[in-house]
Amino acid sequence: MHKARTVLDRVLVVAGVIALWQMASLSAGAYWVPAPWPVLKTLWAMAQSGALARHASYTFQAAAWGFLIGGLPGAVLPFILRRMPRLSAILDPYLVGGYGIPKLALAPLFILWFGIGIESKIAVVASVVFFLVFFNTTAGVRAIDPKLVQMARLVGASELLIARRVIWPSAVPFIFAGLRVSTPYAIGGAVIAELISSNRGLGYLVQLGAMNFKTVEVFAAILAITLIVIGANALVNGIERRLLRWRPANALNKDAASGGM
To answer: pTM, whole model, 2 decimals?
Structure first.
């Protein structure tokens, strides 16, 4: 009953957004804000021609590789620093400073280093994802009750066993929270890098539509990006539910409602 109500509410939200979109088109004019139907027709034409799949796959590839390259170190490093509190204290202000750097400002530098190919897009995405996953994982590692670790040591558990049975299960929900938050940022980072310099990708489609003064194509590309973000987020949520089946249902629902924040 609760799931059915949630689905219904989501459908109503989509209907409300479409209605507001149509009203904005009527108010501002079809050139400035294309109506939903022409945008959907343009998106469908892109899909039929194969252009949408070609450009979307390029963006998705950059986002996926950047997600992997940035996410893995971001998830592992907090566990290493946990055993090295002095090193953690030394690196903490620099990691916070790195997190605060606008990643858009790094994009031109990555293009100079790696060129205009997919490598620079991957670097932008990795720089975004790393810090999001790192700080979420760090919060999970630091939230572990020290008494649980002490009790495990008292009964003779090794450090490896403590890491596997105490620390890792406690930190996994925080890791997935970081992954959920970083998923849209990964795709958005790839798109932004493509907007700056690229001849492929969904960001390139947005830029191409803007340069040709075809707002309907810009809206179609933005709609495609939105749908991909929703699909990627649903995939991450599905993986989380599968891997965290051992958690109480109310805990999973609480995390889903909070969006991992």
So the answer is: 0.79
